[in-house]
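Lecture 7, part B: from sequences to assemblies.

Below are the input chains for today's worked example.
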Amino acid sequence: MHAIDQFMSPLPLDEAGSAPAQARAGDLEVFLRGVERRAWRIAELATREREDALEIVQEAMLGFVRRYGAHPPAQWPPLFWRVLDSRVHDWHRRHVVRSRWSAWLGRLGGDEDDASADPLLSIADGREPGPLARLADREAGQALDAALRALPLRQRQAFLLRMWEGLDVAQTAIAMRCSQGSVKTHLSRALARLRGQLEPHR
Amino acid sequence: MNPPAREPWLERSLALLDDSLAAVDAATLSRLNQARQRALAQRTRRRWLGAGALGATAALLLALAVQRHLPAPSPAAPPVAEAVASASTDAATASGLDAAWSDIDEAELADDLAFYSWLATQSEL
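Predicted structure of the full complex, as structure tokens:
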């Protein structure tokens, strides 16, 4: 059985042919408590929006508990990050469509001076500097924040899941819904780009 | 596969990311806590719904089993309406008999009176 099938199948059976013991709600809470901050940081790096990131984490938790909460706890990490990655991609798709519509409507409007009349422009910018910019080592934090945000989504996800979250290559492939070879490629490119930008800040 | 060797810039970056978790503001932490509790409550609700559906199914099966094993109602036993009608008929019959017996008694008494008056005339002779 392929590794991903083993994770995604309904509950695997043990040697006696029965489903393994159900995970306790306490285990699930401990697991979610352990990943929620990193999940929010990853979503926030992808969206640059605190509220959108919170919404993504909320949806990921609901989806993960509903679909995979009864799986053995050892399988939880890649499955949770898979759900979160899926929600981040959904957000990006919606965002791209919205951006294209906005650009198209902006072109229809013609005169750029009229943009000042757009009520959306009067809404305060929801982007906040983020926790990295509030660190004591502010300069290094901001450089890392900018470097991570500048990465393409797949490269950033590969770096954060593989290097920061500590998933192995197979687990990262499950989380990112791609082959292990793709994970290695995305990670290699991410490390090269980050190294070029962050080595001077050592 | 072992993770790639950690270069100093990478170690520093990962340490900064870890530190950033401690710098998450209280409002965000509260929202994350609410999100977690909502997800776990959903699991509890689903369990209760599952238990409720199981209980309802068990109750239905039990009711069907009891119905199958109950003795069928006796065909000799008349329905209530028939029993009431029969009882009233019986009562009417009884009252009719009483009237008949009363008529017979009165006829016998009349015969006796005629006999006694004849006997009195015979003794006077």
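Note for the exam: The two ends of chain B are 152 Å apart (CA to CA). Keep this in mind when comparing with the next example.
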